[in-house]
Write a structure and sequence with these properties.
It contains five helices and two strands; from the N terminus they run ββααααα. It has helices spanning 38-41, 49-61, 67-85, 89-107, 116-134, and strands at residues 2-6, 19-23. The protein has a two-stranded antiparallel sheet. The N and C termini lie far apart (57 Å). The relative contact order is 0.14.
Length: 137
């Protein structure tokens, strides 16, 4: 929304004044679209694709997460899927471990940054994905 303001010292007499158009402060910042999404970025290569897709979807649907935390967690799942598609199983396990560390930090923060129900859902989906990746020979 634009707001019209008078430029300081821009009036000559009462006839000619200079007006500036500036952006008015928004009452609430609009949500920006996520930069990483399960639908477009998750690489499904056959190995553990159901488990990774379930974890990614659960993360996107966790309503108590802040947008930036959700994006970081989804990014970890996407990175794990990419590592799996390249046959780098240990690296995929590391990305899921990074996800777990971030999730635990959100849960154990002085003021928790995720509701218990969302945390339980993500923890269960994460465990399924970790067990699947660990079982790949």
């Amino acid at each position: 929304m634009l707001q019209k303001i008078l430029s300081s010292g821009a009036c000559i007499g009462a006839v000619a004044c200079t007006w500036l158009w500036v952006a008015a402060p928004a009452s609430a910042a609009p949500r920006r679209p996520p930069t990483v999404t399960c639908a477009y970025d998750l690489v499904l290569s056959g190995s553990c694709e159901m488990e990774l897709a379930a974890l990614c979807t659960a993360t996107e649907e966790a309503s108590s997460l802040r947008d930036q935390d959700r994006e970081r967690l989804v990014g970890k799942v996407v990175e794990a899927s990419i590592k799996l598609s390249h046959g780098k199983f240990a690296d995929a396990e590391k990305k899921l471990s990074d996800y777990e560390m971030k999730l635990n930090a959100l849960i154990n923060a002085r003021k928790p940054k995720i509701r218990d129900a969302d945390a339980d859902t993500l923890d269960g989906a994460l465990l399924d994905a970790q067990l699947c990746v660990a079982a790949i020979p």
